[in-house]
Specification:
heterodimer, A: about 120 residues, alpha/beta, Rossmann fold, 5 strands, B: about 675 residues, alpha+beta, Four Helix Bundle (Hemerythrin (Met), subunit A), Alpha-Beta Plaits, Helix Hairpins, 5 domains, five-stranded mixed beta sheet, about 40% helix, about 20% strand
């Protein structure tokens, strides 16, 4: 059981993540954009952050950089969602400090697999 | 926990995204260089694509992807979005919407045609680069493989980014038995050791028949931050693994992944609840909003209505008693009921901007179809109206805007000849005025052609030729059923149905409609609407034995009918400070029983520009009226717009002032004709 923060401007994606992860026993907290996500990540201890890249207010790359700049959150696994299969986007996000990624569209099993890869009970 | 179906959430979300997309595209037409708008459009497209694919809308994802690719040159700033491009983009948006909302009624041919148009407009360099997935280097497969020899080195700051080498080795262990040797050569002395860095390297012998891909999968997230040497074990090596490894074996000195990763699994209930309460919507404005089903709001309003009625009865009982404490509690409840009513009505209020947004597309399309460039300006989008009124206003406003563009705005040539700007202007504005909301549709076109309207009215036998009429009255014929001055019937207007329907719709909402025009300078149509349809402030009056309500918003003043006025029997006109106001004796109109009061009162009521006096027996006072509609049996009764329940439980009819004015004018005209004869 882990505390997972999902940051996405699309409520349906957040809902999808929630209905996938909650039955696996995880606490899923939602945030609608990078700025909200950053606030929530500062306020509580999370075991994993799943963030979209393309978001209003503060995009995913900015969020990843901001999270990585916080000493208290060092080592926090951050996974980004991307529709682009392009390597450039992946590299940029990795360089910003992301731990891994999930390519949209993803199946529930894929999401669970990635989560179990980065979150150990 | 909410268990909304994500696909349903997606449909709702998509519908909002389409509005965003359409808004951005239309704005782009005005500000083609605004990078923000392009980004907003792309973000919306992107989400539709990504989520669409997730929830099984594959056709949506495919089409949106193509659309996005074609539009990419706009994003890169290589192409300025012109009107043609925006029209195609809007068509594409409509198509995507249809794919989601009514997939069976659409066809991929439409999509192909749209894409063809789009590609023609953006003229991509030869063809769209197909994004073939990067081919994995083919690994020669061995017939029998006993395993792999791995050498693993991570970048020293691998821990910072949230990857845990121990977990990765653990995953490797799931592929088969491993023999792991930790290489500690690079580990510095303790005083030089940075616990946030990874200094260890590993040699792993993996006994597994797995493919190379399976190993790459384990390290998929870190393959750019590591050195992985992977060699197949010699075929001959059939020896069993030396140690069936229980992970992990690393003892020292690499730290666990630093703080933040592990060791805080215990949830904190208060915190969770707090965050769950926070809104789900992405934009700031909606942050503090909750979505409520419309029916629930209607139900709440009904309950509040019942409460107000019950409270009125209580107040009436309390006024008849000497018990101070009952009076006090009745007053308290009256105050609470009033504020509850206001709050509930407030919750039903929706900014009219949501409605205005829809018209931008209408204006854009009409302007294109008719070849009349039109600028569309809205003001007062924040003005709030009851949500049911907003819904009912949509059709009348569509009609008024169509008329304004089709009849009002002149062609570019005529405008140029008249020395006006090329671009026509349609302005739609909303403002509060007391308990009413004014919605105006203004164009800077040619204005109403009074002579033509008059001619048409004479032709249809609505007025006698040469009758003396004010321009204002002549313009009222526009609202006459079957009246149209359009010389040709276009797809848009000129069929004579519409303006009368507009008027009827507005009046059904207890509103009124007025036109003002300046020849050569345009027309303004003003709709006056009550704030809500559910509860009104009314003036309670008595005529004979019956009690009636006049909407307070229509009441201008109350006076006593002087004996002098009374004497002038037969002539139902009142001199109000120089203005002649026709009046109606409600006693006569309603055939009331009983003796008339000695001192008759007169109430001056107005609808729009016209006024009427209503003679009543008694003015009782103001009354909170919860409007109950009349039954279908009474649908042909035009003089009343509804009924309400009074404090003592009896019913009172609500007068429809606009209808009374029409009746009054009819009577007055008859009288004038009689006098003339």
């Amino acid at each position: 059981m882990a505390n997972i923060l999902t940051v996405d401007d699309s409520p349906s994606i957040r809902q999808m993540i929630k209905v996938t992860l909650a039955p696996a026993g995880h606490n899923v907290i939602e945030a609608g954009d990078g700025a909200q996500g950053l606030e929530k990540a500062k306020a509580s201890k999370f075991d994993l952050v799943i963030t979209d890249l393309n978001m209003p207010v503060m995009n995913g790359l900015e969020l990843i950089r901001a999270l990585r700049a916080l000493p208290a959150l060092l080592g926090l696994p951050i996974v980004f969602l991307t529709t682009e299969s392009s390597e450039a986007v992946k590299l940029e996000a990795k360089k910003a400090g992301a731990t891994g990624w999930i390519t949209k569209p993803f199946k529930q099993e894929q999401l669970l697999a990635v989560v179990s890869k980065l979150v150990r009970s | 926990m909410t268990t909304l179906d994500p696909a349903e959430v997606f449909r709702q979300e998509a519908s909002e995204l389409f509005d965003v997309l359409e808004g951005a595209l239309l704005d782009l037409g005005v500000r083609p260089d605004d990078k923000e708008l392009v980004d907003a459009a792309f973000r919306a497209l992107h989400t539709i694509k990504g989520s669409g694919a997730m929830f099984g809308f594959d056709a949506v994802a495919t089409f949106t992807h193509e659309f996005e690719t074609a539009f990419d040159r706009v994003r890169k700033g290589e192409i300025r979005p012109d009107q043609d491009l925006i029209s195609v983009a809007l068509a594409a948006k409509d198509y995507i919407r249809a794919l989601i909302e009514a997939p069976e009624s659409t066809d991929s041919i439409i999509g192909d045609a749209i894409l063809a148009d789009l590609y023609r407009l953006v003229k991509p360099d030869d063809q769209v680069a197909s994004q073939a997935p990067v081919a994995e280097p083919a690994v020669p497969t061995l017939e029998v493989r006993s395993g792999w020899q791995l050498h693993i080195e991570f970048d020293t700051d691998i821990l910072r980014n949230g990857s845990n080498p121990l977990d990765l080795l653990d995953d490797l262990g799931k592929l088969g038995p491993c023999f792991v040797v930790a290489l500690t050569d690079d580990v510095p002395f303790l005083d030089e050791l940075d616990p946030e860095h990874c200094f260890l390297k590993w040699d792993v012998t993996l006994h597994s028949a797995c493919e190379r891909d399976a190993i790459d999968d384990v390290f998929i997230f870190v393959q750019d931050e590591m050195k992985l040497v992977c060699e197949p074990l010699a075929l001959v090596d059939a020896a069993p693994p030396l140690v069936p490894l229980e992970m992990p074996i690393v003892e020292l000195p690499v730290a666990e992944a630093p703080a933040g990763n592990a060791g805080h699994a215990a949830p904190q209930p208060e915190r969770k609840r707090e965050e769950a309460r926070e809104a789900k919507r992405p934009d700031d404005k909606a942050n503090a909003t909750v979505r409520v089903q419309a029916e629930r709001l209607d139900e709440l309003m009904d309950r509040v209505g019942e409460l107000v009625i019950a409270q009125a009865r209580l107040s009436q009982l309390a006024s008849a008693t000497d018990d101070i404490s009952i009076k006090a509690i009745a007053e308290e409840i009256e105050r609470l009921a009033a504020s509850l009513r206001d709050t509930t009505m407030g919750a039903r209020m929706v900014p009219i901007g949501s409605l205005f947004g829809r018209f931008r597309r209408l204006v854009h399309d009409l302007s294109r179809d008719l070849g009349k460039p039109v600028e569309f300006v809205t003001t007062g989008e924040d003005t709030e109206l009851d949500k049911t009124m907003i819904e009912r206003l949509a059709d009348p406003l569509v009609h008024l805007i169509r008329n304004a563009i089709d009849h009002g705005i002149e062609t570019t040539e005529i405008r140029a000849a008249a020395g006006k700007t090329d671009i026509g202007r349609i302005e739609i504005a909303a403002t509060h005025a007391g308990a009413q909301v004014l919605v105006t549709v203004r164009d800077n076109g040619a204005g109403l052609n009074t002579a033509r309207i008059r001619a048409k009215a004479e032709e249809q036998g609505l007025i006698a030729p040469g009758a003396v009429m004010s321009d204002q009255d002549i313009h009222q014929f526009l609202f006459h059923p079957g009246f149209s001055t359009a010389q040709t019937i276009s797809a848009l207007s000129g069929r004579g149905v519409g303006m009368d329907v507009v008027k009827r719709t507005i009046e059904a909402m207890r509103g009124s409609i007025d036109t003002a025009t300046v020849p050569g300078n345009g027309t303004t149509v003003t709709l006056r609407l009550p704030l809500t349809l559910a509860i009104i402030e009314g003036l309670l009056i008595r005529v004979g034995e019956g009690r009636y309500i006049i909407p307070l918003s229509a009441v201008e003043e109350c006076a006593e009918l002087s004996v002098a006025d009374e004497r002038e029997r037969g002539r139902n006109f009142l001199n109000m400070r120089g203005d002649l106001v026709p009046f109606l004796r409600l006693r006569n109109l309603f055939d009331s029983d009983g003796e008339a009061d000695l001192h008759q009162k007169i109430i001056i009521a107005s609808a729009g520009e016209t006024r009427i006096g209503l003679v009543v027996d008694q003015i009782i006072g103001s009354h909170q009226s919860v409007i109950k509609s009349l039954s279908k049996l009474h649908s042909d009764v035009t003089m009343f717009s509804g009924a309400t329940i009074l404090g003592d439980g009896s019913a009172a009819l609500i007068l429809d002032v606009a209808q009374l004015i029409a009746t009054g004018q009819g009577l007055a005209e008859k009288q004038l004709v009689k006098e003339a004869a």
